[in-house]
Design brief:
Layout (H helix, E strand, L loop, with lengths): L54 E3 L10 E4 L7 E7 L7 H12 L3 E5 L10 H12 L2 H16 L4 E10 L1 H12 L5 E5 L7 H4 L6 E6 L7 H14 L3 E6 L14 H24 L1
Parallel strand pairs: 3-4, 3-5, 5-6, 6-7, 7-8
Antiparallel strand pairs: 1-2, 2-4
């Protein structure tokens, strides 16, 4: 299966981890629209994420323990939709906060839960959770297909849906782009890649990718091979390798603002433009 190629566990994913938490949520009203200005990044990635404004829900009925997080913009819409896919440690508050930020940008955003409500608190737990998901890729794809079906069933969704993820979630987003039900966008942040044009030819939309020069998983050479394979397959793409940053930099710009702010803003500007042309046009 093409999906299995994408899920090898690699050491540099440890840069992605953050402490787990177990918040409780109530059903919430829509989030006020407040798109970022040209010089602004979403608050969550610079450490300014606020109180959570979305709601938890089970969108994957075959897994009663599934607990995703839904953030919706204020108003009747309809709005384009996003599925965002967590890192190797599971669905954490920073990812939930980013879902809220995307809602403020005008996207109905579902933060997927691929770990049945579990969140890792250390490297061993993270590896175990990621490995278990990798060994059951049909369920992972079914999970994301269910997320897509949930979003398409809503009257306030335009029908256009994108998927994006970071680290482990970046590889899953690409896997979903290959094997999942139809959707219109795939955005990858330093996720596991492949370089087979025949496999990539199954993607039917433009691919976005943000990567780091100091990363070893994927290393710059792997990104270049991925880009060459996409081009060979005739798949439009917007990929960029940022200098002076390493694996996991984009979700945690606040850990080194001096180094990460400039590439982080550029990646965000590219991402907004990509989502506009794939989901709003």
């Amino acid at each position: 299966m093409r999906s299995l190629i994408l899920l090898a566990c690699f050491v540099l994913l440890s840069a992605c981890a953050e402490p787990a938490s177990e918040p409780e949520y109530d059903t919430a009203p829509g989030i006020a629209l407040a798109q970022t200005a040209d010089t602004e990044m979403p608050p969550a990635i610079i450490g300014n994420g606020g109180e959570l404004e979305g709601t938890d829900l089970n969108y994957f009925e075959t897994d009663p323990a599934n607990l995703g997080y839904l953030a919706t913009p204020e108003g009747d819409g309809p709005f384009p939709a996003l599925i965002i896919i967590h890192e190797w440690n599971g669905l954490t508050d920073r990812v939930r906060q980013l879902a809220d930020d995307f809602a403020a940008e005008g996207y109905i955003t579902l933060a997927a839960d691929l770990y049945s409500g579990q969140v890792g608190t250390n490297r061993d737990e993270n590896v175990a959770l990621m490995t278990a998901a990798g060994e059951d890729m049909p369920t992972v794809i079914a999970n994301l297909n269910a997320a897509t079906a949930f979003l398409r069933s809503r009257d306030d969704v335009t029908g256009k849906i994108g998927a994006m993820g970071w680290c482990f979630g970046g590889g899953i987003a690409l896997s979903f782009g290959l094997d999942g039900v139809n959707h219109e966008a795939t955005a990858i942040f330093y996720g596991r890649l492949i370089d087979d044009p025949e496999v990539l030819a199954h993607v039917d939309h433009e691919i976005y990718g943000t990567f780091a020069r100091l990363d070893g998983g994927p290393a710059p050479a792997q990104v270049e091979a991925f880009e060459a394979a996409l081009n060979s397959a005739g798949i439009e793409n917007d990929l960029h390798i940022y200098d002076d940053v390493d694996h996991g930099f984009w979700l945690r710009i606040d850990q080194d603002m001096d180094v990460r702010a400039e590439p982080g803003l550029d990646a965000w500007t590219r991402l907004k433009a990509y989502l506009d042309r794939t989901l709003r046009s």
